């Protein structure tokens, strides 16, 4: 009796009738015959064969063996079905393998839905937690490649480089801009994409976020006279009361400043670009030292962004209404610096527009820079960024947009430090200069150095006079301002000597009791 050998190639089932030399294939549920040398072939697609199709058989030039095969079809059907079932099981198993492979190698669509922040952390980046928020995570690496990652409402993860407008997009843009492939980031042995989870909360739409922040801002009261801006940052209350738009969160005592972006508005005669409030910035009276899980931040968080980030802008009460009438525009890294600058320089607040970038220059802020440069044609635009590497970078970025801008640098790190240290040393705002700041500091440093070197050699009476003279400098005052003045040449060594000297004085006093 003839036996069957069944094999599968794509969607065709091949049946060999053994020991006959003819090869038969079933096609579309019908048996047909085609001469191929000494062989007969018949094809079946879709892996179906039905007994009732036998009445539709049409063939010609078919050998006796084929005729016998048709007559005995009932015997062969179970064998064919058995082989078909076996083949189908193999297909199901193959599909499962392919599905698993698809999970391991995500397609382009779901790759941009994987937590980009966690992928980068697995590839050598680390979070700058003091620069991160619920919706934005700031990452950097040892090569100082800093990016900010966000999660959109549709689940896609995007990033942007705060120092390069062309460096932004999804994971494919990130890898392309760095000369690598997306799969290179997933090749790390410690990455299991099915277990990646991000703590970044999806951003709500711009309009929703802005509306809520603006509504909350408008419900706040004007800043109080006893604000920490006066008690801790030493800004004159007379200056603060000139700004109705400078608000205060009464629950925590935070100072709140409005932020703006450029937006096109439709009119009958066409579109017009205007400054539109996008949110606000809260300057915290008490910096946040840890997150909600109790984990310490690398650096204290001093500001929070509400709504969508723009350029912080303050106009004094009764100031100019048209930008072309302003005589000064001051741009610093924080509004505290800008307010301090105005007090230090004695600027007329009604003729001055106060601005702040809040530590980063974004694309929306650049649009505002361009707007101010074009509209405030008569204003002297002053850049007062921090006196450090990052401040110099901001200065270059701003001058690319506002070439006519001038630069003014603080004596210390920023203008807030200048004001705080100057007033701590008993100086009035208009008396604070580099010489007036450094002279009392150098005098104090010289007294400490002399006494620390001569302490063991001085006669008791002379030693007593020198110690009394030193303590007349109000040592606690210098200790309070130590973190801000240590960058000044010689001051770091001064405080090291002071600590050793205090120990000597304390030990000698204890022995004499």
Q: What structural class should be given to the helix and strand makeup?
A: alpha+beta
Q: What general outline do the C-alpha atoms trace? A: globular
CATH class of the domain at 222-417: Alpha Beta
CATH topology of the domain at 222-417: Dna Topoisomerase Vi A Subunit, Chain: A, domain 2
Describe the structure.
- The chain is an alpha+beta fold and 513 residues long.
- Among the domains are: 113-195, no CATH class; 222-417, Dna Topoisomerase Vi A Subunit, Chain: A, domain 2 (3-Layer(aba) Sandwich); 433-512.
- The chain has helices at residues 64-71, 73-104, 108-111, 116-121, 171-177, 182-186, 206-218, 228-231, 237-240, 335-345, 363-375, 389-401, 415-424, 434-454, 460-471, 475-480, 482-485, 491-512, and strands spanning 3-9, 12-18, 23-27, 30-31, 34-36, 39-41, 44-45, 126-127, 136-140, 147-151, 157-161, 164-169, 221-222, 247-249, 254-267, 270-290, 296-307, 311-315, 328-332, 352-356, 380-383, 406-407.
- The strands form 4 sheets. Strands 13, 14, 15, 16, 17, 18, 19, 20, 21 and 22 form a 10-stranded mixed sheet that branches. Strands 1, 2, 3, 4 and 7 form a 5-stranded antiparallel sheet that branches. It has a 5-stranded antiparallel sheet with strand order 8-9-10-11-12.
- A hairpin with a 2-residue loop joins strand 15 (254-267) and strand 16 (270-290).
- Helix 14 runs antiparallel to helix 15 (460-471).
- The radius of gyration is 39 Å and the shape is globular.
- This is DUF3991 domain-containing protein.
- InterPro entries: DUF3991 (IPR025054).
- Residues 228-318 form the DUF3991 domain.
- Pfam families: DUF3991 (PF13154), Toprim_2 (PF13155).
């Amino acid at each position: 009796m003839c036996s069957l050998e069944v094999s599968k190639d794509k969607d065709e089932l091949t049946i060999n009738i053994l020991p006959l030399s003819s090869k038969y294939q079933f096609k579309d549920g019908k048996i047909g015959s085609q001469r191929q040398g000494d062989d007969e072939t018949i094809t079946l697609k879709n892996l179906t064969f039905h007994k009732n199709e036998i009445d539709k058989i049409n063939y010609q030039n078919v050998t006796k063996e084929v005729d016998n095969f048709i007559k005995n079809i009932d015997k062969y059907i179970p064998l064919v079905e058995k082989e078909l079932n076996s083949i189908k099981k193999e297909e199901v198993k193959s599909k499962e393998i392919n599905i698993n492979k698809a999970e391991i190698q995500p397609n382009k669509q779901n790759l941009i839905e994987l937590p980009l922040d966690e992928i980068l952390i697995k590839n050598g980046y680390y979070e700058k937690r003091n620069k991160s928020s619920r919706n934005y995570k700031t990452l950097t690496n040892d090569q100082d490649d800093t990016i900010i990652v966000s999660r959109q409402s549709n689940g896609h993860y995007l990033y942007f480089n705060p120092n390069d407008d062309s460096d932004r997009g999804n994971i494919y843009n990130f890898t392309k801009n760095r000369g690598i492939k997306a799969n290179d980031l997933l090749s790390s042995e410690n990455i299991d994409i099915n277990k990646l989870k991000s703590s970044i909360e999806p951003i709500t739409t711009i309009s929703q976020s802005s509306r809520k922040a603006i509504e909350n801002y408008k419900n706040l009261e004007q800043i109080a006279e006893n604000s920490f801006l006066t008690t801790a940052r030493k800004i004159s209350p007379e200056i603060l009361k000139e700004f109705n738009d400078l608000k205060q969160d009464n629950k925590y005592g935070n100072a709140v400043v409005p932020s703006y972006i450029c937006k096109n508005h439709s009119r009958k005669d066409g579109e017009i670009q205007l400054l539109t409030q996008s949110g606000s910035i809260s300057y915290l009276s008490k910096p946040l030292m840890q997150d909600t899980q109790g984990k310490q931040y690398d650096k204290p968080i001093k500001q929070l962004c509400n709504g969508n980030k723009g350029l912080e802008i303050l106009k004094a009460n009764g100031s100019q209404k048209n930008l072309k009438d302003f005589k000064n525009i001051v741009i610093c890294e924080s509004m505290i610096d800008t307010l301090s600058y105005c007090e230090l320089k004695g600027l007329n607040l009604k003729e001055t527009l106060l601005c702040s970038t809040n530590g980063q220059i974004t694309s929306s802020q650049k649009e505002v820079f361009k707007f101010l440069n074009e509209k405030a044609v008569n204003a002297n635009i002053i850049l007062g960024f921090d006196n450090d590497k990052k401040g110099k970078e901001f200065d270059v970025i701003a001058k690319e947009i506002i070439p006519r801008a001038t630069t003014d640098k603080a004596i210390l790190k920023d203008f807030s430090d200048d004001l705080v240290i100057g007033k701590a040393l008993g100086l009035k705002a208009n008396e604070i200069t580099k010489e007036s700041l450094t002279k009392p500091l150098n005098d104090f440093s010289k007294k400490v150095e002399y006494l620390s070197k001569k302490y063991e050699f001085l006669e008791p009476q002379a030693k007593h006079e020198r110690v009394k003279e030193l303590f007349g400098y109000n040592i606690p005052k210098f200790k309070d301002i130590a973190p801000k003045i240590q960058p000044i040449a010689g001051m770091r060594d001064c405080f090291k000597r002071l600590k050793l000297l205090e120990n000597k004085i304390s030990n000698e006093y204890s022995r004499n009791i």
